[in-house]
Design a protein that fits this description.
Bound molecules: S-adenosylmethionine
Helix content: 25-40%
Radius of gyration: 17 Å
CATH class: Alpha Beta
């Protein structure tokens, strides 16, 4: 592996059938499918839509948008309602295959975990298939050279899954047009499985470290806590509070 390139071993986590089911449910499942209980953290549902709608500047027009680390693509579909052209990129072939299948067919059947050996059938159905959306496999630390800057870049919970987060952070000014928006969310879940310890951004509290780096080319416009819930099985969930941020690319 070249330094800064995606770690194939760690990324296998996102190629498994279990991850695919979890993420299809997380992105497209109904509230009841995701959390079939009365009691509990309902405010954490619908994250892939909220990470766009609660952080975007609705006053700015958006021609092009990039959804980096898009997984199975729900936020990219949300962005396609707002922007003229949207590209969703993820390192997982399995996730991008599912996103492309939803885009082509408007429908995808999948299975998600109920408990033990029991699985449930889920169906993703998209009523209006957008014509302004494409998905591709790509590495956020090593994006293709011909990538033009976007009016909006959305990267939800990607940073602490990268082998070298700084390699993406230093490329960001070239990926967002002057005056454009950068929407980031991250729970700063540093794990050596994904990111070698010396690459963690936590020389100080991670949020402050991130602000220091981005401040060089962007202005921070909005900070907001965004809880989210990922179902592992019907009685077990990951509850996380990501830090959400909207940044504006400085014009000079
Ligand atoms: C925690 S998930 C977040 C997915 C999605 N943005 C969301 O909020 O549900 C991290 C995603 O980053 C992707 N990923 C990991 N390393 C990547 C890389 N080097 N380049 C692009 N995507 C990557 C994974 O495949 C996974 O889909």
């Amino acid at each position: 592996m070249t330094a800064g390139m995606a770690n194939e071993g760690a990324s296998q986590v996102y190629e498994s059938d279990r991850s695919l089911g979890e993420y299809l449910l997380f992105h497209y499942g109904s509230d009841d499918e995701q959390f079939p209980w009365q009691e509990g953290p309902g405010e954490a549902l619908g994250f892939p839509r909220r990470s766009v709608e609660e952080l975007i500047d609705w006053e700015s027009s958006v021609g092009s948008a990039l959804d980096l680390g898009c997984a199975v693509g729900k936020s990219s579909f949300v962005l396609s309602e707002i922007a003229q052209e949207v590209v969703g990129i993820d390192f997982s072939k399995s996730f991008i295959g599912a996103a492309q299948s939803i885009l082509q067919n408007g429908k995808l059947c999948y299975q998600y975990h109920e408990e033990g050996t029991r699985w449930k059938e889920g169906v993703v159905t998209i009523e209006h298939i957008p014509q302004n959306l494409t998905f591709e496999v790509g590495d956020a630390c090593n994006l293709r050279e011909d990538m033009k800057p976007f009016d909006l870049l959305h990267a939800a919970n990607l940073l602490c899954r990268l082998p070298d987060p700084m390699s993406l952070l230093t490329r960001l000014p070239d990926l967002v047009v002057p005056g454009g928006q950068l929407i980031l969310t991250t729970p700063f879940t540093w794990l050596e499985e994904f990111t070698p310890r010396e690459k963690w951004l936590n020389g100080e509290e991670s949020g402050r470290g991130l602000i220091k780096v981005l401040n060089q080319s962007f202005d921070l416009e909005l900070e907001k806590n965004l809880p989210f819930l990922i179902r592992e099985h019907r009685r077990k969930f990951q509850y996380t509070v990501a830090l959400g941020m909207r940044w504006r690319r400085r014009k000079s």
